[in-house]
Amino acid sequence: EIASCLVGSEMCIRDRHRIIKVAHNDGWYKVPKKTSIRNIAAKLGLSKSTVAEQLVKAEGEIVRDFLQKSK
After folding, report:
1. Which pLDDT value is given to residue 47?
2. Which residues lie below 8 Å from residue 63, measured CB to CB, with a gap of 6+?
3. Tens-digit pLDDT profile for residues 22-36
4. How far apart are CA 7 and CA 36, in angstroms?
5. Other CB atoms within 10 Å distance of the CB of residue 23
6. pLDDT value of position 60
7. Which residues does 16 contact at the CB level (< 8 Å), separation at least 6?
8. 25-to-45, 56, 69 alpha-carbon distances in Å
9. Where are the alpha helices (DSSP H) in 1-71?
10. How far apart are CA 9 and CA 50, in angstroms?
11. For residue 1, what pLDDT is reported?
């Protein structure tokens, strides 16, 4: 269960990884998207807002790392 690793309002890396992996495997990053936040959240037993927040945070980290490496 993902919720078991919640500490305050922060999710552990393992849980964020699982959310991203499910999103990727289900087609979230395809154009057009093959899934929705609602479907990902239902699959993981999480709220839509939690899934959306964790995807935005992860994507922000990826973009930040990309920009730092491409200076």
Report:
1. 93
2. none
3. 999 999 999 999 999
4. 26
5. 23
6. 92
7. 54, 57, 58
8. 17, 17, 26
9. 13-25, 37-44, 48-69
10. 10
11. 44
